[in-house]
Give the backbone structure.
Amino acid sequence: MSIHIEPFLMFQGDAEKAMDFYVSLFPEAKVLDVKRYGPGEAGPEGSIMQARFILQNQVVMCIDSPIKHAFNFTPSFSFFVTCETEDELKRFYEALSEGGGTLMPLDNYGFSRKFGWVNDRFGVSWQINLP
């Protein structure tokens, strides 16, 4: 048996918007596959039953949860993005923080030249780093 592990993001209706947003930000990112709920299935028709997309060689799975729940994403899980240039860092930081929130503004915190931590508009947490 081959074991395979992928990050899994559970949204409450925004999976497709989030996936499309993330894929638009990163070079060579793309949606790999999408399975939607059909009529009479557990989730709203057309919503994401399961999708997978790839960001910088990392496959990520996402769904629209058919079950409403009282929890959402937490910053204790985040995507860590290592950038090559300050322009790249600023572009990711600005795009990902738009409509979301800042946990740590861009600054030199001693462990890298520049670092910032944000929650995006979907509640997913991102650490943006320039070593």
Summary: The two ends are 38 Å apart (CA to CA).
